[in-house]
Each structure stands twice: as C-alpha cells, then as structure tokens.
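(Deposited chain)
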Amino acid sequence: MPQRYLAAPLCLLALLLVFSVGCRRGDPILTPVVQSVDNKNLTLDKMRTCIKEGGIKRGWAVRDVAAPQPTADGKGKRAKASAPDPAKGQAQATLNIRNHTVVVDIFYTATSFTIAYRDSVNMEYDAAAGIIHPQYNSWVKTLAEEIRIRAVSM
C-alpha cells in the first residue's frame, strides 16, 4: 500500500519536470566580446579568409559588407561619406537550419574579431528580455571557435 501512495507524487514530479523543460523560453543572448588572436602574421585579408572559411565549414554563408555609401544631406546634395577604416573589416554571416535562420555581423581587424546578433527567424528572440533560443549561443560559439582556430594556425 505505501508504494501506491508514493507513486502519485513521483508521477506528479515527473510531469512537472517534463512540462517545465518543454516550456523553456530561451537563454540570455551572447554579448558580443572581442576575440583576440595571437598571431603576428595575420593581415586583414588573412582574417577575412579565416572568417569566410570558418563560417563555410560550420554551414554559414559569409559575405563581405560594403563600406557605407554617401547619403543626401537634406538639401538635395550628396554628403561626403567618411572613408572606411582600412584597418577594419565587416562581414555578415547567415545560418539556415531547418526552419531557423540566424544572421550575425562580424567586425574584424587583423588581430581580433567580434560576432554580434543582427537578425533571426524562428529563434524566439525577445529584445526587451535579451533572450533567444538556446541553440543560437551554441551556433555562435562554434563559429567563433572555428574562426579563432583558423586564425591562430594561419
């Protein structure tokens, strides 16, 4: 008889555990952190290559982002665009997995890079709460590690 009374609370506990795991909303989104690379032989072009090859290996589509174009100054004249910094680059990487899409910006120099969230589809992103689907952080960490490995060994 005591076993029958013990089974009910255990079943209830198991159901609560399953329900709480199934209702998990998300994890705090990774804060962009500068990833320094200890390799004196790197150039901006070599870092760009590491980013592209590392992204491709992990399933990301990586493209260069063009320098900002000049815009009108409000008086119908084109304003001068500031010259892009030749010591810095920017790429955009997109990952499509099943019905999920993640887009990140990658800012880089010859000795460092930073990956920052740009956009997503079906990743339960909540900007106000700063949370996103837990898999986002895993994908971005894997991308960062792949880039870092390539940059160190280049």
Q: What stands out?
A: Residues 15-22 have pLDDT under 50 and may be disordered. The first strand starts at residue 27 and ends at 28.
